[in-house]
Write a structure and sequence with these properties.
two-stranded parallel ribbon; alpha/beta; binds iron/sulfur cluster; Lambda Exonuclease, Chain A; about 290 residues; about 45% helix; six-stranded mixed beta sheet; 11 helices
């Protein structure tokens, strides 16, 4: 089930918004503060969305106990992916063109199905959440709520609950990435708040599928404690203060720079006066002035 419209319309943070702010607050500001149009749509965005939709489709069928045909799942992916490609403006391609990505996506869907653990029970898939961000005293650290969607919730063979997040990645992750990753903290916090999942007993697992000719699924389990939640909440408070102060800075060593959808606006940033950013597209500049 997609995140409900009313969740999206109300002021909110999502884990990806927070991560974006922490990676490059200027990129965050272009998108969410000044609300300028992105300069292009990276194919990777469309690809990741179609893959997630296909993975959710498989999980829902498993939950309902229905038989799944691998070819049907691959076709489901292709339909969503090609439809999204046709509906996207200024689509930009990296190493992979539309046909190449379609073939790779089909292999990844087949790989996910082949490697689906038979002893794990699907409880639910595509589950939206919306939780208050409150510290250990019960005081809100932000007037925004945290929203998101659990890709998959499962029952493990030992009876424990796990939240699964599917990731597509160019290569396998470094061994310690899952233990530091911000999303696990946000999602386990949400599971605790929204579904009363005990963080000491709940696993978060990244199921990473490589975007390669011969894809592989690697699983990275991790857990969090209440202290991690307090650190995350402190970070959210600091982000909130930075937004109020309009303290937005480029991070030119960011992982996002390579395919940044605001690269042109970023190049102009240091030439602008306070609260007025001049970019090639005047309508975007007007939007930024209006937002200031
Ligand atoms: S190009 Fe890099 S530094 Fe500039 S806004 Fe994009 S991600 Fe940030």
């Amino acid at each position: 089930m997609p995140i409900p419209e009313n969740y999206l319309k109300a002021p909110h943070f999502s884990c990806s918004r927070l991560s974006k702010f922490l990676n490059c607050s200027l990129q965050w500001a272009f998108q969410y503060h000044y609300r300028i149009e992105r300069e292009h749509t990276p194919l990777s965005l469309v690809f990741g969305g179609a893959f997630h939709t296909a993975a959710t489709w498989i999980a829902v069928k498993k939950k309902d106990g229905r038989r799944i045909d691998a070819a049907e799942a691959e076709d489901f992916f292709s339909e969503r992916f090609l439809e999204e490609c046709r509906g996207s403006e200024n689509l930009t391609f990296g190493d992979c063109d539309e046909n190449g990505c379609d073939t790779m996506g089909r292999s990844m869907v087949a790989c996910l199905m082949e490697n689906w653990p038979q002893d794990e029970i699907v409880i639910d898939a595509g589950v939206p959440f919306r939780v208050m961000l409150t510290d250990y005293r019960g005081l809100p650290v932000s007037d925004k709520v945290l929203i998101g969607e659990f890709d998959l919730i499962i029952r493990l063979p030992d009876g424990a609950t796990a939240i699964i997040d599917w990731k597509t990645a160019a290569r396998k992750w470094p061994a310690d990435k899952a233990s530091k990753d911000f999303q696990a903290t946000c999602y386990l916090y949400a599971g605790w708040r929204e579904m009363k999942m005990d963080p000491e007993q709940t696993l978060f697992r990244y199921d990473v599928i490589t975007k390669t000719a011969k894809p592989a699924v690697t699983r990275y389990p991790t857990m969090r404690k209440h202290d991690h939640f307090q650190r995350m909440l402190k970070l959210v408070g600091a982000v909130e203060n930075a937004i109020k102060a309009e303290s937005f800075l480029p991070n030119e060593s960011s992982f996002f720079c390579g395919d940044c959808v605001y690269a042109a606006a970023c190049r102009e940033w240091h030439r602008t006066q306070s609260r007025t950013i001049s970019v090639g597209d005047c309508s975007d500049a007007r939007k930024m002035k209006a937002a200031a």
